[in-house]
Every structure is written in C-alpha cells, then in structure tokens.
C-alpha cells in the first residue's frame, strides 16, 4: 500500500484530502505545517508527498528545497498541491525540483487520484 | 553788333543797298568799256564806302570813304596816267562826300540793327510775360481748388494770400485779411489753452527756417473771430528765394472728422483689447483648471506656457528659456521627448500617448499633440503630463487584492467541493432520503460555480496585468472546436439543443495562437450560445478572411437588443437593461470580456456579427493564420 504524506496548513482541506486518500485505500500521513512535514518525511519515507505552497512560517518552496536538499528525502516524489495557478509559481516549483504541480480547484477528487496514481506508479 | 535772332526775310534797306551795288558794278563796267573812265571810277569808288558802311556800321563807312581816295588815284593813274597833283584838287570834295555817304549808310544800318534787336527783345519779353501769366493762372487754379486752406504770410507775419477754403474755414474775406497780422486774425489753441504768439508755427518757422507739421495728437484748434473753434492739422513751411527767407506758407485742414474717426477707432481698439483680454483670461483659466500639467511649446521646442499643476508635478517652476532639453532632463532617459516631439510636429504621428511612465517613485501619463492652425500649418506642440501614481498604486493593490482574495477563496472552496464529491462518491449509499442526495448535489454544484467565478476573477486580473503568458503555437482550430463540442454536448442535450460544426471540405490553415486560450474562447462563446438558447441549435463555422481565420458561433436564442449590444464585451456586463436584471445563474458576465482580452492578446479580433431579438445571435472571432 502506498504511503502519502500531505503537508497542508488549512485543517478543513487537510482533513478532506486525508479522507479522500483513506477512502482510496492509501496510507495517509498528515502534517499541518512545513516543519511538521519535514519531520514526518524524514521519519516515514512516504511514496508521495503532497505539499501546499502558501503556509505560515515555512512556505512550500522552503519545504521543497529542504526535501530535495536532504539526502534522506531527495528521492521522494514531491507534488506541489496548491491553489496558486500562476505560471511564476509553477516555474519556481519546477526549478526547485518538484516532480509535479497540481492546482487544487482544477483537480477534483477523481482527477486527483488519477494524477497521483501516475506519479506513484508512473 | 550782330544779333542771334536774324530776320527771316531781307528788309528794305538791305534790298536797296544790293540794288545800288549792282548798279554801280554795271555802270563801272559800262563806262570802263564804253564811256569815260573817270566817271566810271568815280561811280565805282562810291561803292566802297557804301558797302563798308553797310557791313561795318558808321566807322566802316568812314574808313571806306577814306580808303577810296588813294584807290581812285591809283586806278586813274594806272588807266589814264593822271598825276597826283592833277588828281588831288578836283577829288577832295567828292571824296569827302563819299566819306559822308559811307558814314550815313553805316548809321542807317546801325539803327536798323537796334530796331530789330529791340523788336526781338520785345517779343521775348512778351513771351516770358505770357508764360509767367499762364503759370500764375495755373497756380491760382490749384490754390483755389485745393481742399485745404492755404495762406501765405510775409516775414512780418502779415497775410499776403488766402485761398477760398482758408477764407471759408477762417471766416475771413481775402480783401479784408490781406495785409493784416495773422496772429490778430486767428487764435491758436492747444486743447483749451491759447498758444502764446512766440510758440505759434509761423513765428517758429520764420525763426528756424524749418517746416513744422502739426498732427492730430498735437491737439491744436483755431479760434476764429466769431468764436468758432475747430481742430486742425497743418504744415507750415518757409518760403525761401535766392537764399533769403521771404515768408512762410501754411496748408491746413479742418480735422473734426479725423478727430471723430480717431475717437471711434480708439473706442473700437479699447473694446477689442478688452475682448481679447477676456478671451485670454478664459483660456488661461481653462488651462489652469486642466487636471493635467500643461506645456505649450513652439515648433523649435521652446516652452511658451505652462500651468501650476505642471510646477507641482515636476516640483520646479518653469523659467524663461526652458526648452525641450530642459524637460527631457527632468523626465530622464525612459522617454525620448525630442524624438516624439519631432514625430508629432512632422505629422508622422497624430499624437503620442504613454499611459504610465515610471518616473522615480511616481508614474506619469504623457500626451504629446501638435497645435494646428485652421490653414493646416503646425505652430507648436502641447505636452500634457499627469501624475497617475495613485491610480497606478490603486490598480496594483487591486490586482494584489484579486490575487490574494482569489487564493483565499479557493481554499475553503476546495474543501466544500471536495467533501461533497466524497459524499456522493463514497457515502451516498448510506443515505436513505433522496432529498438528502439533492441537497448534497446542490451544495456541490454551487461550490463548482463559486470556483468558476473565482477563476474568472483571477484570470481577468492576470490578463489585465499582462501577467498571462500567450504561447505561440500552431493551432488546429477545427480540431479544437470538435474537442470543445464533445465537452459541451451533454449540456446541449440537456436542453435538447443541436450542436453543429460546419467543417469546411478543404482543411483550413493553422493559426498562430495559444491553444489553451483558443479553447477557452470557444468554450465561452459556444457555452454562451447554449446558455441563452432554449430551443433550436448552436452552429459553428469557419472561413478564411484576409490573413485571418474567422470563426462564427450562431445560436437561435433570445438575441440581444440594439441598446444592450453596446454593453457587450465589457467588464461585468451581462447585456441587460439595469443592474438588477442580472441573470446570476449565467455566470459573472466576465466571459466575453475575458475572451476579448485573450483574442486581442493573440492578435485577433472579436465581436458581434449581428443579433436579432427572439431570432438569435451571431458572434465571431478571428485569429491570425500561421505563417510557415
């Protein structure tokens, strides 16, 4: 069973994704902040990390940089899961090494599962 | 004693002398050959004093008479051998007689000469007198018929001549005035004050021997004996003959009409000046009230006029000698003022407009336009400068607001939509009441709509900021249309509408555009067609026109009234009459505006071909055909 780590500061959104992936029969780890996310990523080595960008204290780009910079986590699949749909953010994420970029509102549950499957088994 | 005016015909005396001479010569010859020589000689010798007297006057006659005595002796001696003593006595008395005859003839001749001379002199004199008389008559004629008054005074300033006009104006009769002193006859006034004698023009002219001109401005008047006062203009000139001053002449005119005319003109000028001053004041007030900094320059680029707002914007008050270069220095490098000025002055461009020029911490709006006269010539330029910093900041903060707000709104929307989807997908079997399912569906649908609205706002904000990238791809429009129709066919079927694509037989050319945006525009237009049509169809067709590909979307819906057609393609406008008649089920009303921004951004055009109420609408957009 694949393990997914979700790093998201909004509790409602976090809980929703957790529900979704649980129902989709994935193992889910939740982190409500960038700091917590990094800790859990190093601990549990998930198959896929979904990371929000706009977060307090430590934003998604900082987390991404750290993940890709740390030998323990640099090989993890990281998809930025955000509501920022502008090209600058997209470019920045790719430059920093993100393996994918998905806009939340454009990826309803079904579609999201599709994309995730691609990344885990692609 | 010869005179120049020789008589044209010989007079009597001359004729007589000629006859005598000829007779003498004849007789001489006669007596020489046919009669006594002595008589002949005697007759002949008479000729000499006679002719000498005729030719040389009385002295000639005298000497002629004397000379003849020895000549006679020599002749008689030669021809008849007469000795001196024989000759002398009998010839003395006759010779004296000859002398006297010679003198007499001489005197006669002199008298004749003098008579003739006198006659010529007399004729010449009469000729001169005649000429003089006709000259005087002519002068008299001129002087009498002149429109001006003329009078002449001698060096004692007594009047010697007065022409009819002068008589009339001064109320004087020539016979009465002549010989009287001018200053007694007429008084000169300057304004209301009498001019003292020493300052009167005749006196001055006589003293200085120079002419004096009196103008309207000198304000001179004549006051006649009867008390009549009238303004005058005059010229007073010295009369000089043979280097000596003999008097002075004055030509003058009643200047009443002139003075009145002058007053009228002065009044006109004053009125015009007042009008001009008023117009100028209005113009300056208008310039001052403009909500822009104002600069007026001539064709050379010299600053002619500015307003207060300009000083406020630049923080410097314009001085004498400001030119384009001064302004360029103030504006900095980012705007080529000289270059743009030239373009506008040379009519290469009608005007130059810069919406927001970055200027230090501010933003300036610039507008350069030529000043053209009615005859078409360009006499300068106007530069309008606006401080749009606040507006720009507002715009920026509005954009930032949109970006942030959109993002903030998306977060809870994600949860709402996602969770309702989860309920429908995974939990709906647990729900017994069908109404519950409906409720969930409604929440889900509403959240999707809200997401669409937020997406529209965000898109719009980015498009307006120019933050959306337009990819340059070669797009198969026909293929995109087919894809979109596939996506929208279900919503059309729900309303029982027909979706048709009239694909041309010959494959249409590819267009140079951003494929995703082309798709968005198609979704918008075709989606609108479906939305606003209750029955019938939505038809799409393609045609090549100029170097663009034109796509028409034709529906059989409710159409748009002429009045509302003007509201199309604007922000937030659904073509409806009032703000309250919004169909909120049909989106934000941003669709067409966003489509327009996108189509224009790709180098195409968009518009309403035509629309008839209750018949339907025909929208079109064009995209540039890709060049290989």
TrEMBL record, chain A:
Signal peptide: none
The keyword Phosphoprotein appears for this protein: yes
SMART domains from the UniProt entry: REC (SM00448)
Keyword vocabulary terms for this entry: Phosphoprotein
Domain Response regulatory: 3-119
Record keyword Phosphoprotein present: yes
GO MF, one annotated term: phosphorelay sensor kinase activity
PANTHER family attached to this UniProt entry: HYBRID SIGNAL TRANSDUCTION HISTIDINE KINASE C, TWO-COMPONENT HISTIDINE KINASE
Protein name (Swiss-Prot/TrEMBL): Response regulatory domain-containing protein
Record organism: Candidatus Woesebacteria bacterium RBG_16_42_24
Automatic annotation (TrEMBL), chain B:
DNA repair found in the keyword field: no
Catalysed reactions, semicolon-separated: ATP + protein L-histidine = ADP + protein N-phospho-L-histidine
Annotated ranges, domain Histidine kinase: 404-627
CDD domains registered for this protein in UniProt: HisKA, PAS
Pfam family, one: PAS
Origin superkingdom: Bacteria
Residues annotated as transmembrane: 12-34, 54-75, 87-106
UniProt keyword list: Kinase, Membrane, Phosphoprotein, Transferase, Transmembrane, Transmembrane helix
Gene Ontology cellular component terms for the protein in this record: plasma membrane
GO molecular function: histidine phosphotransfer kinase activity; phosphorelay sensor kinase activity
Top-level EC class as recorded in UniProt: transferase
InterPro entries assigned to the protein according to its UniProt record, in alphabetical order: HATPase_C_sf, HATPase_dom, His_kinase_dom, HisK_dim/P_dom, HisK_dim/P_sf, PAS, PAS-like_dom_sf, PAS_fold
Record lineage: Bacteria, Candidatus Woeseibacteriota
Organism: Candidatus Woesebacteria bacterium RBG_16_42_24
Entry keyword Membrane: yes
EC id: 2.7.13.3
Name of the protein described by the UniProt record: histidine kinase
Occurrences of domain PAS (ranges): 279-320
GO annotation terms (biological process): regulation of DNA-templated transcription
């Amino acid at each position: 069973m694949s393990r997914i780590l979700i790093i998201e500061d909004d509790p409602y959104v976090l809980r929703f994704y957790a529900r979704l992936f649980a129902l989709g029969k994935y193992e889910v780890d939740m982190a409500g902040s960038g700091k917590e996310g990094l800790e859990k990523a190093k601990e549990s080595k998930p198959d896929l990390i979904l990371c929000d960008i706009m977060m307090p204290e430590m934003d998604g780009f900082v987390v991404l940089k750290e993940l890709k910079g740390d030998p323990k986590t640099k090989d993890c699949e990281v998809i930025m899961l955000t509501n920022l749909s502008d090209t600058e953010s997209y470019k920045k994420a790719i430059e920093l090494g993100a393996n994918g970029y998905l806009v939340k509102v454009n990826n309803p549950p079904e579609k999201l599962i599709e994309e995730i499957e691609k990344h885990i088994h692609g | 004693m010869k005179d120049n005016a020789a008589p044209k015909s010989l007079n009597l005396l001359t004729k007589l002398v000629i006859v005598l001479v000829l007779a003498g010569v004849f007789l001489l010859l006669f007596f020489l050959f046919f009669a006594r020589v002595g008589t002949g000689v005697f007759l002949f010798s008479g000729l000499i004093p006679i002719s000498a007297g005729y030719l040389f006057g009385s002295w000639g006659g005298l000497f002629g008479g004397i000379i003849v005595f020895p000549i006679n002796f020599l002749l008689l001696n030669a021809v008849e051998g007469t000795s001196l003593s024989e000759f002398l006595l009998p010839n003395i008395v006759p010779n004296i007689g000859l002398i006297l005859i010679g003198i007499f003839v001489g005197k006669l001749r002199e008298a004749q000469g003098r008579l003739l001379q006198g006659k010529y002199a007399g004729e010449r004199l009469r000729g001169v007198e005649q000429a003089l008389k006709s000259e005087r008559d002519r002068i008299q004629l001129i002087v009498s018929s002149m429109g001006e008054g003329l009078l002449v005074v001698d060096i004692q300033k007594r009047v010697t001549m007065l022409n009819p006009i002068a008589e009339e104006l001064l109320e004087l009769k020539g016979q009465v005035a002549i010989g009287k002193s001018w200053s007694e006859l007429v008084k000169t006034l300057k304004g209301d004050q009498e001019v003292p004698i020493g300052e009167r023009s005749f006196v001055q002219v006589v003293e200085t021997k120079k002419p004096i001109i009196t103008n309207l401005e000198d304000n001179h008047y004549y006051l006649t004996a009867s008390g009549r006062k009238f303004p005058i203009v005059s010229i007073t000139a010295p009369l000089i003959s043979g280097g000596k001053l003999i008097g002075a002449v004055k030509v003058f005119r009643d200047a009443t009409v002139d003075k009145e005319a002058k007053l009228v003109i002065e009044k006109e000028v004053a009125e015009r000046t007042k009008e001009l001053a008023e117009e100028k004041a209005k113009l300056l007030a208008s310039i001052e009230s403009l909500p822009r900094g104002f600069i007026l320059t001539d064709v050379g680029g010299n600053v002619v006029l500015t307003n207060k707002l300009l000083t406020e914007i630049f923080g410097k008050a314009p001085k004498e000698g400001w030119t384009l270069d001064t302004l360029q220095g103030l504006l900095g490098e980012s705007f080529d003022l000289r270059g743009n000025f030239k373009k506008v002055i040379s009519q290469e461009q009608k005007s130059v407009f810069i919406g927001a020029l970055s200027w230090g911490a501010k933003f300036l709006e610039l507008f350069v336009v030529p000043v053209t006269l009615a005859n078409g010539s360009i006499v300068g330029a106007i530069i309008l400068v606006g401080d749009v910093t606040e507006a720009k900041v507002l715009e920026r903060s509005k954009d930032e607001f949109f970006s942030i707000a959109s993002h903030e709104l998306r977060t809870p929307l994600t949860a709402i939509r996602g969770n309702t989807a989860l309920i429908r997908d995974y939990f709906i079997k647990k729900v017994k009441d069908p109404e519950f399912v409906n409720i969930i569906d409604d929440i889900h649908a509403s959240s999707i709509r809200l997401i669409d609205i937020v997406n529209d706002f965000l898109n719009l904000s980015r498009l307006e900021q120019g933050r959306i990238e337009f990819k340059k791809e070669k797009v198969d429009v026909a293929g995109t249309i087919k894809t979109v129709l596939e996506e929208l066919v279900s919503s059309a079927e729900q309303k029982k509408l027909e979706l048709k694509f009239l694909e041309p037989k010959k494959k249409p050319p590819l267009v140079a555009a951003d494929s995703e945006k082309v798709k968005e525009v198609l979704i918008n237009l075709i989606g609108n067609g479906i939305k606003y049509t209750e029955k019938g169809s939505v038809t799409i067709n393609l045609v090549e026109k100029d170097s663009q590909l034109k796509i028409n979307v034709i529906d059989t819906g409710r159409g748009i009234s002429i009045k509302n057609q003007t509201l199309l393609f604007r922000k937030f406008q659904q073509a409806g009459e009032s703000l309250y008649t919004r169909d909120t089920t049909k989106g934000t009303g941003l669709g067409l505006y966003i489509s327009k921004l996108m189509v224009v951004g790709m180098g195409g055009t968009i518009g309403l071909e035509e629309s008839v109420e209750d018949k339907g609408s025909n929208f079109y957009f064009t995209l540039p055909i890709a060049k290989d």
